[in-house]
Amino acid sequence: MTSVVFTEGRKFDLTAIGRLCIDLNANEINRPMEQTMTFTKYVGGSPANIAIGVSRLGRKTAFIGKIADDQMGRFIRGYLDKEGIETRNVVTDTTGAVTGLAFTEIKSPTECSILMYRDNVADLKLSPSEVDASLIADSKALLVSGTALAASPSREAVLLAVDYARRHGTKVVFDLDYRPYTWQSEEETAAYYNLVAEKSDIIVGTREEFDCMEKFEANPGHDDRITASKWFGYAAGIVIIKHGKEGSIAYSVDGQEHRARSFPAKVIKTFGAGDSYAAGFIHGLMSGWTIGKSMEFGSAAASIVISSHSCSDAMPTAAQVTDYIERCGRGEITAG
Amino acid sequence: MTSVVFTEGRKFDLTAIGRLCIDLNANEINRPMEQTMTFTKYVGGSPANIAIGVSRLGRKTAFIGKIADDQMGRFIRGYLDKEGIETRNVVTDTTGAVTGLAFTEIKSPTECSILMYRDNVADLKLSPSEVDASLIADSKALLVSGTALAASPSREAVLLAVDYARRHGTKVVFDLDYRPYTWQSEEETAAYYNLVAEKSDIIVGTREEFDCMEKFEANPGHDDRITASKWFGYAAGIVIIKHGKEGSIAYSVDGQEHRARSFPAKVIKTFGAGDSYAAGFIHGLMSGWTIGKSMEFGSAAASIVISSHSCSDAMPTAAQVTDYIERCGRGEITAG
Amino acid sequence: MTSVVFTEGRKFDLTAIGRLCIDLNANEINRPMEQTMTFTKYVGGSPANIAIGVSRLGRKTAFIGKIADDQMGRFIRGYLDKEGIETRNVVTDTTGAVTGLAFTEIKSPTECSILMYRDNVADLKLSPSEVDASLIADSKALLVSGTALAASPSREAVLLAVDYARRHGTKVVFDLDYRPYTWQSEEETAAYYNLVAEKSDIIVGTREEFDCMEKFEANPGHDDRITASKWFGYAAGIVIIKHGKEGSIAYSVDGQEHRARSFPAKVIKTFGAGDSYAAGFIHGLMSGWTIGKSMEFGSAAASIVISSHSCSDAMPTAAQVTDYIERCGRGEITAG
Amino acid sequence: MTSVVFTEGRKFDLTAIGRLCIDLNANEINRPMEQTMTFTKYVGGSPANIAIGVSRLGRKTAFIGKIADDQMGRFIRGYLDKEGIETRNVVTDTTGAVTGLAFTEIKSPTECSILMYRDNVADLKLSPSEVDASLIADSKALLVSGTALAASPSREAVLLAVDYARRHGTKVVFDLDYRPYTWQSEEETAAYYNLVAEKSDIIVGTREEFDCMEKFEANPGHDDRITASKWFGYAAGIVIIKHGKEGSIAYSVDGQEHRARSFPAKVIKTFGAGDSYAAGFIHGLMSGWTIGKSMEFGSAAASIVISSHSCSDAMPTAAQVTDYIERCGRGEITAG
C-alpha cells in the first residue's frame, strides 16, 4: 500500500501536537452525573490518547504541548514519561492557566456525555516559538488534533508545526476532533480545518466533522466520495470518513475504497473509541500493512478501549489486540 | 448580649449570598495531589457551607446565588433543597458559565492546599436585578462572603443586597473570605471590602484579611483594637479577628473583648474550620447566648468539621456539637 | 449660606478627578457631520472643563487624572499647565491607552450630538495607588465626575479619592455626568452612583440622571423633593436637579428651595452649558454668596459658553460673567 | 508579459477587501501634532486608497468591508459611491464598533508619523458569512491588505475570500501592509502572512515586511531573490520588494528582474506613496503593459500623491499620470 509512504530511519514514529488534559471518569456509572459521587483521574485529550496508544503498540512517540504549572500538569507529564513518550517539548505554562478537565457522564453504554472545563486552559496557550522543529524533522508523522486550532496562540503553533512537517517530509495525520466549545463560530472552524486539511497526508473524521469543513462548499448530498476527492487534489493520500455504528470507509488517492469489519465488545462507554482506532490504524500503516488490515487492527483496539473504564489507561498493547482479534474469531467475545 | 439585636418574627434566620461551588476532595490523603487517583464530590463555597451549617443547627435559611446549567449546578440545587434551604433565589445561569471547582490536596493535617477552577464561573454572574429584596426583608440576617465582591456583576448584586438589608433592618454579617485569585489588585479588594464593611453589623476575618482592607490606612502595628474601633464608627456591633492557632478575639461596640477556649480534634484537614465556626457563632447569637458562649459553640463545631473528610457534608447538628463539648469536657477527645 | 461650609486656608480651592479628553469640534456647522470636512481640537471632558472654568474665575485648581502617552495627551497637559492648573497628579499611561475623543455634530443650535471614542481610553486607567491623598487634603473641595466610575480601575481610584476627601474634611461635589456608553448596565450605574452620592456634600445632575440612580428605589412620580431628601439623610448639604430649559432647582439641607433666573444667549451649541454652570456655581459658593446668587452667576457663565464654538476654551473670567449679566440687564443681549 | 494573466470579460477589474477608515490630516504642517489645531477628514486605509486609485485610473472596482453605523461610516460609503466604486458588499456594523482613525503628524516632508485609533474598529469585524462570493467571481483580481488579517473575524473573512478567488480564477494581489498595532505577536503575523502569500499571484511589500514573514525561515542575508523564489514555488507570478528610496525590484516567475526609474516630486508627506504605486502598477498590468512600464506608471502616480495633502483624495487620473511623466521628461518638475 503506497498511498502514504513514511520516511524511514527517523528517531520517532509519531509526534502528536495539541491537547493534554485530565479525564475525571465517574466511578458510579449508568446514572446521571448528579448522582455520581466519586471520580477517577486519567490523562486525557484526543492527541494524548493517540500518542499513548501508539506508544503502547511499541512505537517511539513524542508530544508537543503545554501543561499547567500545577498538580494536574505535573501528573500529566509524569504519566507521559512513564509511558516512554518524549516530553522535552511539553512546555509548562507560566501565566496561571489551568489544566482542561473532562468529567464523563455514563448514563448507559450508549448514552454518554462530557462536562468540559475549557476556560483559560494551558493546552491552548502553546505558542509558535515554543514548537521544536527538530522534533518534527525527526518524526515519520505529525499527528494534529483539530481542537488545537480552536484558539490563538495554539492555532498558530499548529499551523507552524504543519509547515515544519511539510518542509521536512514528515507526514501529517489530521484527526478532525471537532468540539463545538472554544470555537467562536462555524465559519472560523471551517476556515482553519480547511487550511490544515490542504496540507495533510491522512485526514480522519466523522461525516459530521467533514460537513463542518464543507460549510462554504457545494456537497449537498454529503457524498463521501466528493469529500475525499477534494483532498486528493491537495496533499492527501488517505481520507477516512467515520459513520458511527455503520463503520468507516477509507478512500485512498489511487481511487480505492476500503472497509473493515468491526468487532464485538461488552461496551461500558463509547469515549476513546476514535482515539484507539487511530492509534491502531497508524501502527498498521507504519507496519506496512494494507489499509484494510490496518483498519481492522484499529477497530479491534477500539473494542478493547470501550470495554474499559478509561481511555488513555486502557490503550492496548499489540499482543492484546492480536489476542482480542483471535478470541473474537473463536467466538469467545460477544456484544454485551 | 445586645451589641447586635436581630429583628424577631422573620421567616428566615439567615440568607446567605455568594459562592456555590463543588469541592473535589482527595480520597487518598497525606500525599501530593499528583498521587491522588480518586476524588469525592461535595457542595462547597464558604457561604454555602455556612448556610448548610446554620440549617443543620436547626435554623431556617435561604440562599441567593447563581449556578451553572449543568450536572454540577443541578447537584448543588438538589443538595440545598435536601438540606431544607430555600433556593427560590438560586438562579440558573444561561450564558454557558461553569461551576467553580476546588480540588483539595491534603499532604498532612497541617499542609493542605486547594487547586481552584474559577474562570467563567456561574456564581460571579449573579446580577443586581436577580436579587430578591423580599427574601432579604424576610430574614434576620444577611451573610455576605467577600469573594462575591471579586467581579462584576456579582459585586454589584452584593452591594445592592447590602443596601436592601439596611433598608429593611436585616443585620449584615460580613465574612471577609479573601481569596487572591479572581481579584485584579489589592487596591480593588480594599475598595470593595471597605464599602461593605462600612454597612456591616458583624465583621469576621483573619488578621491578614483585615490588613488587606487597611491598605490605605494607618495601622502599622496591625493592632486589632484599632481595626475594630474603626468599624464601630460605622455600623458594626461585633468585629471578630481570627489569629489561626492563637485563637480569635471578638470586640463588641460596648468596648468589651471576648475570647473563647478551643477544643481538641483529630485533624484530617483544616478546610471548613472557619465556616463551621461562623455557623456555630451565628446560631449562638441568634439563640441569645453571650458572645463568649457563642464563640465556644462555633469553636466546637469547627473541631468536628476538621476531623472529617468534607466541609459541607460534615456540618454538625446542635446535638452533635453539645455532645462534642461534653465529651471534650470528659477528656474523651484529645488532639491527634 | 451655611448648607456647605468649606474649610478655609487650603492651598487649592478645587481638585477635580476624572476625564481628560479631546473635543474635535466641527468647523462647518449647521449640517450633519457627514458633510463636515474640518475639525478644531480642544481639551474636553466634563471635569476638565469645570477645572478650567473655576481656574478662569480666579481660583486655584488641581487635577487628578491620566493621559495617553501621545501627542493628544501632551497637548492636554500643556493646556492645563498654561491655564495654571496643578498637574502633578496627572499621570501618563504606560499601557498603550489612547486619549478619549468627542467629535461634535452641530446640526442646529438645538440639535447637537457627539460621536465618542471611548475604547481603551487613558482616563479610565487611573488606579487607586496613583491618587495623591495630600492633594485632596490641601483642597477645599473635590469634584467627582460620574463618568470616572464607569470602569475599573478608575472606579476604585474615585472611591478612594472620596474616602480621602471625607477623612480630610474636603467637601465632595458630585457631578453625575451620566453617559450610557462605557457602562455595562443600568444596575451597575445605580450601584456606584449611590455609593458616591452617599458621601457627597453637593450633588448636581439632571432629573434623568437622578432617575438613573433611583433604579432600585420607590419614587414613581420622579419627585425632586423626595430625591433631595434621601441625600440629606446621608452627607449632602445641597442637591441641584436640572430640568433643561425649565431651569434648575437647588434644595438645601435647611429645607430651602432655590431657583435662579436664566440669561438670553445667541446659542451656537448646547455643549458645555452644564460645566460652565457648575464652575460658576462653585465659584459663587466659595465666594460666600447665597445659593441663589451662585446659581445666577453659573447661569450667566453657561450662556457665554453656549454662544461660543468651544467648551473649555470659552470658559469666561469673573469680569466677563459680571459684564454679561450687566449687559443682559441693559437689554443688550437677546436670544438668537 | 505573461507572469500573471487576468481572466477577461469580468464585470469588475478589481475588488479590494479590508480596511475602510478615516484620515485626519493636520492642516498646520511642519510641526509636532501638539501644535496642530485643525484637521481635515479624508477616507483612508490602504485597500480603500488602492481601490479609489484604480477607479480614478478608469477601472471598475468594488469593495468588501465593514463600516461603523455612524457619521464617519456613512461618510466613507458616500465617498466610495461618489467615486463609482461598488459598495453592495460594504456591510454596516451593528455591534457598536467605531471607525478606525489615523491622525497624521507631518513634522517635515521626511518626518511623518501617524496616531492610530484601532480599538473596536468596524473593519476588523467583517465575518466570513458576509463575504459575497459572486463579487469575487465577477472580478479579475482580489486585492488583499495584510492588516485585515490582524484579528478575527476579519482574518477568517479574508482567508475565505482568497479561497473563493482561487476557485473562480480571480487573481490574488497581496499587499503586505504590515502595521504592528492590532497584532498580538510577530509569530502570529508570520503565520497568516504565509498562508495568504502561498495562495497569491502578486505579492507586494517592503523588505522589512518580507523579513517579518520569514521569521521561521532561513534567509539570514535578507536576499530578495531567495524571498521571491519561495513564492514562485507556490502560486506567485510576480513578487515586488520595495526598498524605500533605493526603489523597488519586481521578480517574475520567468526568472526576470525588473526595476523602474523614479520621478521627482515636491514632497509634502510620504503617506500614500505605496497605495498610489500599487494602483498604478495594477492598472498597467491590466492594460497589458510590461512589468517595467507598469512600475514606472505606479512610480509617477506615487510622486503625485506625495506632493499633495491627502492620500485618497489626491489619487490621480490616467491623464494626470501621463502628463506628470511628460512634464518630468521635459524637466518641468524637480525635487523640492
UniProtKB/TrEMBL annotation, chains A, B, C, D:
It catalyses: 5-dehydro-2-deoxy-D-gluconate + ATP = 6-phospho-5-dehydro-2-deoxy-D-gluconate + ADP + H(+). Residues 13-317 form the Carbohydrate kinase PfkB domain. InterPro entries: Carboh/pur_kinase_PfkB_CS, DKG_kinase_firmi, Myo_inos_IolC, Myo_inos_IolC-like_sf, PfkB_Carbo_kinase, PfkB_dom, Ribokinase-like. The keyword Kinase applies. The keyword Cell wall biogenesis/degradation does not apply. CDD domains: KdgK (cd01166). It comes from the Bacteria. SUPFAM superfamilies: Ribokinase-like. GO terms for molecular function: 5-dehydro-2-deoxygluconokinase activity. Keywords: ATP-binding, Kinase, Nucleotide-binding, Transferase. Its EC number is 2.7.1.92. It holds the Pfam family PfkB. Pathway: Polyol metabolism; myo-inositol degradation into acetyl-CoA; acetyl-CoA from myo-inositol: step 5/7. Catalyzes the phosphorylation of 5-dehydro-2-deoxy-D-gluconate (2-deoxy-5-keto-D-gluconate or DKG) to 6-phospho-5-dehydro-2-deoxy-D-gluconate (DKGP). Belongs to the carbohydrate kinase PfkB family. This is 5-dehydro-2-deoxygluconokinase.
